[in-house]
Amino acid sequence: MIRRALLIALLLGAGLAPAFAQDIRELLAALDWERLAAKAKEKVTVDLDSSMLKLASGFLSSSKPEEARTRELVKGLSHIWVRSLEFEKPGEYDLAAIDKALASFRGPEWKKIVDVSAKQERAGVYLRSDGERILGIVVVAAEPEELTVVQIAGSIHPEDLKMLGGQFGIPKMELDMKPRRGGRPAKDE
Amino acid sequence: MTSAADAGTESALARARAGDEAAFAELVRRHQAMVYSIAWHYLRHRDVAEEVAQDTFLHLFRNLDHLESDAHVESWLRRVVVHRAIDQTRRARYRPWTGLEHAPEPTQSSPPADPWLRDLLARLVAALPGRARMLVILRYQEGLEPADIAALLALPVGTVKSGLHRALALLRGKIRRETAAHPVTEARR
Amino acid sequence: MNDLEARLREVLARREPSPGFRGRVLARLQAQRRRPARRIWPAAVLAASLALAAGLPFARRELNRRQGEQAKAQLILALDITQQKLALTERRLAALQERKIP
After folding, report:
1. Which is more confident, B178 or A56?
2. pLDDT tens digits along B126-135
3. pLDDT exceeds cutoff 60 at A180
4. How close A179 gets to chain C, by Cα (Å)?
5. DSSP string, A116-138
6. Across the interface, do C14 and B137 touch by the CB < 8 Å criterion?
7. For residue C14, which residues of chain B lie inside 8 Å, CB to CB?
8. Per-residue DSSP letters for B70-104?
9. Comma-separated ranges of CATH 1.10.10.10 domains in chain B
10. Domain B1-108 in CATH 1.10.760.10
11. pLDDT tens digit sequence for B57-102
């Protein structure tokens, strides 16, 4: 039986952003992130709020297909948050603490897309939705020498998730999806 | 005196050290079959083998300054991937496939002479205990002499020789039993 | 030549990884090398100082350009990491599903 490991935290919804931010602060505190970061040999920290996303988007070229698609994705987002640590050796963090901390991300508004566990690894993706739209995504990857949490908040179309590389397990939203801006037709995934 | 090929390789190493990504890509191209094959033959899991192989090359990039020649690059890569593959089985629940019909084989350039025997032998090698499997890989994939294998694995030469001898005896015995149980028939060809 | 040893050499012949391997290595390398700048960017601080000292519109435009490029770099890094970890999750799931096949 595959135990489920969830690491993905997704922040959803501009209106819910403060609550999500609070969730993430609590998650970081539960993981004792600062202590872990002190042990890491490499750290990645990204915090992009809506103003920074807008600024960044302005420097994406609409003439380059990849950057143009990124601009479309970013349009609906309110926040992107990434924390990633790489350690010299395995065993620098406690998987049980991660499992416990992530338990707080379960609820009717969350869709657990996938979670996978192995002996010293966890990987998972959670989507938050209001029943009609995806409001955010949380991705957590706990590997023996690397720990990553990604949180993306905002209105996300399933096609954008594919662009992010999520070809798998994105649930078919058996709902009428609202059309994208620009008139693209709604699609079930 | 170096050959033109060596000169080209030395140049790629020097350029990669200077940050030339194309030169690093050339080093990857030259050694990827070796690195990936060791991981694949030991782990018998394509995705995990690819991940270990990727990690090995990323580690190479971080350590280019410590390498002096392509021969050094090759031996260094071999050492790293061997130890990473061994570490992988120690810390994860990944075990080599013995049901090879479900493990997609990497591409092979020439068709096998006897597919049934080839598959049997591949399965039997995959089922060898970890150390024996690695000894066989280093001897028959990489063509290393026992003394070189001993240096790479930090084992006494006598241990390597006796380990290889026992592995071959084990394989011969199992082939004999399988062949007796499944005599060559037209249906198998 | 010992037949078993010859067959072992054949079975254990080196094989190429799946197509695109080199590209995947380089993509991970590029993602790792694009580290975000520190929260206080020395170049931005310098540009801001120039703007204050000289009050030149050019300095303000330069500051905005640097901030924008750095925000773009952070955005690309964040999305790269997201893609990597989604791909990792997919591989893990595929691996576990393969093991369920009887």
Report:
1. A56
2. 999 999 999 9
3. no
4. 24
5. EEETTEEEEEEEEE-SSSEEEEE
6. no
7. 33-34, 37, 141
8. HHHHHHHHHHHHHHHHHHHHHHSS----S-GGGSP
9. 109-189
10. no
11. 999 998 888 888 888 899 999 999 999 998 887 765 444 433 333 3
| pLDDT score for C44 | 59
The verdict on C61 touching A (C-beta cutoff 8 Å) is no
The alpha carbon of residue A115 and the mean position of all alpha carbons in its chain are separated, in whole angstroms, by 13
Residues of chain A whose C-beta is under 8 A from some C-beta in B? 90, 118-121, 144
Whether residue A148 and residue C96 make contact (CB cut-off 8 A), yes or no, is: no
- pLDDT at residue A104 in the model: 64
DSSP β-ladder status, A110-118 and A121-129 = antiparallel
**Closest-CA distance of chain A to residue B170, Å:** 30
Residue A182 pLDDT more than 50? Answer: no
From A3's Cα to the closest Cα of chain B, the distance in A is 12
DSSP-derived secondary structure letter, A44: E
Is the pLDDT at C81 greater than 70? The verdict is yes
User: What is the Cα–Cα distance from A53 to C75, expressed in whole angstroms?
Assistant: 7
- Residue range A64-89: average pLDDT? 83
Domain boundaries, chain C: 3-100
Amino acid at A165: G
Domain B109-189 falls under CATH 1.10.10.10? yes
DSSP character string of C8-59: HHHHT-----STTHHHHHHHHHHHHH-PPPPSS-HHHHHHHHHHHHH--HHH
User: Residue written as tokens 């379960």?
Assistant: A106
